[in-house]
Design a protein that fits this description.
CATH class: Alpha Beta
CATH superfamily: P-loop containing nucleotide triphosphate hydrolases
Distance between the termini: 35 Å
Helix content: 25-40%
Number of strands: 11
Radius of gyration: 20 Å
Structural class: alpha/beta
Number of domains: 1
CATH architecture: 3-Layer(aba) Sandwich
Shape: globular
CATH topology: Rossmann fold
Amino acid sequence: MAETQEDQSEYEISMWGPTSSGKTSLMNSLMRSLYDRSQHDKFFDYLIYDADAEELQIDYSHLFTPPFDKDQSGTVSPETFRWVFQRRFKPTSKFVQPVSVHTHLIQIHDMAGVKAVALDDSLTKTIFSNSKFVLLMLDHTLLTEASAGQNIQTPWSTTGVTKQEYVASVEKFIRFLAESKPRETRWLAVCFVKVDLLSINRDPWQLINAHFGSNMTDLLTDCRNRLGWNVESFSVSSVGFVHKNGKRKSNFDLGKLEILDSENWAPYNVESPFFWMFNEIEKLRLKQHDSFISQWLFSDRNKEWVPYVYNRA
């Protein structure tokens, strides 16, 4: 087995978003995304498995059956999953150096939407406060009013929120993070979810501005400019697309609340927010040597590190 770069840190990743904003679906589709990515990547395999198992046991239950909650009732209480993520180079990868092979121990907190928005209990606050890495879910289908010239009717829009209410909830959350640990540097992956339901996919910042307004865009970019956080935006879909008659359409039936073609289920861009985070972790890891001499000795080797390739849209 190739040399593995790792440390003893356990990285906490929390997911914020209202009920039915796709937090659980995104997390459950991550394994399929990594599987698809491994099939098409010339150099690397991407693995994720239970950190608490006595031996390496990869759970394939989410690979071929889309794990979506049909009644959209949402997560009732926070669920935490301890996973080991590994990037390994394939035996055929002759030019990839061991410095690019990494292992990460991660906790992913799937937060209940009601509690995430309310921020009124100590457990929810503690989990968010301790998470340097946050996935912020922006779900345009929850908006009650038309946006960007479109009014996507979903079963959840009637009980959804206005743009102003969504912005206020995000602002409350960001203020809490900033005040709970003022000097903490955080990584905020802003996920514009359910992008499959849009007729046109643009840069995610443009989508956020078009659907949620400039106040949301300004609020999120201010996290980078004023708070010094690392902020990036991504367009994602847990169901992905199907291609028929040369056209791309959503692989989800809003009427039946189920996936259209489970045999061709391919989540769209779900792995990218995580790859962005792993890039940041590994860059910091490779810089953390004990002395100037060790930094000098490892500098050439670290130049051989290959960043994760991800897409924002």
